[in-house]
Amino acid sequence: MFTIRQFARGEVIFRESEVGETAYIIDRGRVEVLRNLDGTAVHLAYIEAGEPFGEMSIIDEKPRSATVVAVEPTTVRELHRDDFLKNLSSHPEVTISLLKVIFERLRETNATVLQLYKSHPELLPHNASRPVRQLIGGTAVFLEGLTPEAAAALPEVRFRIPKFPFRIGRLSNDALAHNDLSIPDQEPLQISRHHLSFVQSGDRIAVSDRGSRMGSLVDGMAIGAHSTATTCFLSGHESTLILGNHSSPFRFRIVLNQAQAASS
Fold first, then answer.
1. Is the pTM of this model over 0.70?
2. Pairing mode, if any, of strands 166-170 and 181-183?
3. Architecture in CATH for domain 125-263
């Protein structure tokens, strides 16, 4: 299930923005996690023997969020995503170990974000600078296909989103895929296994990236992939959504309809 790999001191194990589907567990040595900030490599953490890294790549399809470099001769066990899925039941101890790390790092991230908001309340979402249409709780959100591919992906011509969050992703046999709407896609892929979700925040509706590789466009605004934006609040009565890049055939109209919601 594992591939043993060795890295010399100073050797790059993977780079920020690379696409990968492998996680690593350090058997011997130590690595440094670095993030590029305006052309400067910024230290984030050291990871020691017995600890995993790169684990999010076996969950989503998003490019690596940081660069990892061996700071001394290092031996790691490399786990590919396909092997992880095949051995969910036969090697539960590996699964549990990696999931514990993922959940712990998510908790740490949430704590950091809360502390950031506490120190800088101007960063809270309700103070977003982009004009936002104020929505009531009963607003209905509809999706309509603007291309044959998009129309075929919807259960109805004018599909009403039944709940929030509403998750959209690529149709696959992936055991970790969790979507409310799964859309068939073919090479070159535009839609990720976990692509985006419609979410409700107070009286507003937003489109939020879920770690997609190609990202999306909402009224021309890029979210996900290489964009720094991951969430876009909807404004106006209609918006255009493209799953993937500008050449993607998966183009939809989003319609916000208060009148329909009030009568339903």
1. no
2. parallel
3. Sandwich (2.60)
